[in-house]
Amino acid sequence: MTLERLVEELGLKCKCCWEKLKTTEVKGGYAGDLLSDVMANSQAGNVWVTRQVHMNIVAVASLKDLAGIIIVQGANPEKETIDKAGREGIPIMVSELPEFELVGRIYQLLGKG
Amino acid sequence: MPNDEYLEGIFYIQGRDFVDAGAVSSEIKKNLKEKGIPESIIRKVAVITFEAEVNIISYADQGTIQLFVEPDAIIIAADDIGQGIPDIDLALQEGYSTADDSIREMGFGAGMGLANIKKSSDIFEINSEPGGGVHLKCTINIKEK
User: Fold this and answer.
1) Domain that holds residue B88
2) Strand order in the sheet with B73-82
3) Which residue of B has its CA nearest to A53?
4) How many domains does the structure of chain B reveal?
5) CA-to-CA distance for B122 and A64, rounded, in angstroms?
6) What number is the ipTM of this complex?
7) Which of A72, A105, A107, B131 has the maximum number of C-beta atoms within 10 A of its C-beta?
């Protein structure tokens, strides 16, 4: 599934790198707020669901070749985070849903292919 | 120390400056990508350099990460000037951390850093004494066995 379709299905607000949504394929997902956990256990192509909003999340996503970051609970990423994500080409999206619910919906969507 | 002939770069890291944590790791990743190092190897190096970088920022006054690219292996040497680790075996246990709340709030300090570094290394060497900084040498074989 492309990131663009995920954004549409879940009504996500995209904060940067719109041009990448169409061509970025999502290969599974990972949820977590501990950066070392995400570094150790996420896989390339995963979409990352988190409540963290500071700019260090961009470094993690970029180093692990993640498809993008979805921030939950309608939390606003810091301006520095969006700026850096734009430079690194990491799409950042925001969902109003709590983490548990959003992950459940992504799991269902990706399961259907 | 590995042979200087294979030294690709020395990267300086300022302690307590979380603003751009991961910047050195990104630079190292780009360097290895340009060299055509396989992606699976680059990802292991990325875990090692990121965790080493965050450790220096979290616990040391300053430090360096050196990147060596040998024909068969990549070597990451991380050295810092800082408080050091009194009990290395304890620090290597997953979940053990001395991070304060300000570090944990950013999602760091989960006590996984050194364990992640060790897991991603083919050869992992660590030396530290209280007050003497931390010295890591990680070898990642380029040809996977």
Assistant:
1) 4-141
2) B7-14, B60-69, B73-82, B134-141, B123-128
3) B106
4) 1
5) 19
6) 0.90
7) A72
Instruction: Give the closest-approach CA distance of B142 to chain A in angstroms.
Output: 18
Q: Which of residues 57-96 of A touch B (CB under 8 A)?
A: 57-60, 62-65, 80, 88
Total length of chain B? 145
Instruction: Give residue B62's identity as a one-letter amino acid code.
Output: Q
CATH number (domain holding residue A103): 3.40.1390.20
Give CA–CA dist A4/A21, Å, rounded. Answer: 5
pTM: 0.94
Q: What is the pLDDT along chain A (113 residues), one digit of tens a residue?
A: 999 999 999 999 999 999 999 999 999 999 999 999 999 999 999 999 999 999 999 999 999 999 999 999 999 999 999 999 999 999 999 999 999 999 999 999 998 65
Within 89-108 of B, beta carbons closer than 8 Å to A belong to 106-108
CATH number at residue B131: 3.30.565.10
Is B46 touching A (CB cutoff 8 A)? yes
Full residue range of the structural domain in which residue A33 is found? 3-112
